[in-house]
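Chapter review: from sequence to fold.
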Amino acid sequence: MLRHTIVAIVAACLALFAGAQPNAAPGARVVRYDGHRVVSVSLRDLRDLRTLETLGIDAFGCEISLDRPNEFLVPPDRYEAFVGAGIPHVVVIEDLQVIVDAERARLSGPQPRDASWFDDYKDLAAVETYMSELAALRPDLATEINLGNSLEGRPIRGLRISNDKVDLGRCKPAILLNSVQHAREWITVMTNVYVADQLIRGYESDAYIRSLVDNAEFYIIPVVNPDGYEFTWTTQRFWRKNLRPNGDGTTGVDLNRNWGYQWGVSLPGGTGGSSSGSSDVYWGTGPFSEPETQRMRDFVLAHPQIKAHNDIHSYGQLILWSWGWSPSPIQHQPEWNQIGIEMSLLIRAVHGRNFLPGPIYTRIYPVAGSSVDWLYGVFGVLSMSYELRGGGFAPPPSDIILSAQETLPATLYQAETMIERFQFVADWNRDCIHDVLDVLDFISDFDARDARCDINADGDIDILDFLDFLQLYSEGR
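The token string follows.
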């Protein structure tokens, strides 16, 4: 099985110090990619895959598929042998370090005075500062939240956005938007923060946004993996995992293979994840073994009102949902498919980009232990995942605002769908959980002829209301 990792490829480059990342300390070791080509290969058969493995050429993405083009990172000392193997390919990037250097020079230089915050990528400190500024703009709508610390002690921060002055008489459903489980996916941070920006700045002028903020809660976590994200700014631009020392000379766990639903399941062809610490899809020593996934898990458990979720990734222009671990359709496949199609149409209407909707396993590749499968499989959440625009993990800064603009309507539509589907009508005691206590409380109020028990709003409190309540309760509505 081909190991999906960049670590082995760049290990020999660790002694090179020049061309530091934007936030590198003076004299710090920085991984370089001089002469490394990114090539696109449509694998003809498993023989091609084995040839690449023998040559020590690893995937530049995180998984490999035999039914679509795959990108591989070819070190300069292996390119001649690669060409000699006769595998059809197209060189996508001639020298990866040229892109890294250009990005570093741009980010290290002075920014134009009139630059928008979304004109270029921002490091962890800048993201946290901007979230604080947004919260200060509308303290009546936005609150800073802290989920707890990462492996290296960095706080995992975010924003809660909702208008608490609007009392629905029941729990408000919440949508969780998180990004940067994978450290190198910088554009996802900007896209996620843009949602917060527009919810806060557009509340007064946009009736649609105001309705969503009044009727739901938004939890926005831009950087789930702060250690890895910081590492991409200081040391290794295309690092993917967290920074867990694995004890065998390797580093890092893929956080999106570390969640507790179907964790550690090796799927056909050895896909879905890896038990090897050197792999970019290493699933860790156990489900939720990592502080970062533990913090996210605990946050979800503490907020049962979370009924929608979007785990934002790059790249590929996709809208994905469960299952990742199985090709079998989920129970809600027709409904989720319709939602995904509507989201793709909304995205296309903005800048003409086509995002393909579909289940993770069949649309992109098998994934075991993902956040999307955990939130859907355990809680029935409307859980989805974007793969954003861009031809790589370092798209030009001009793509930032375009990506943010085109996905915003789809994200808001997902929130709107959640509000319509999960209204907590049967959560009779308003604890945001549907359980037997709600049934007992409803029966008590029904016997007392409480006006709230007129579920069908026909003016009578009768057996039809009781049946309607039981139906809503069984559906978790």
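Two observations follow directly from the output. The first strand starts at residue 37 and ends at 41. The domain at 112-421 is CATH 3.40.630.10 (Aminopeptidase).
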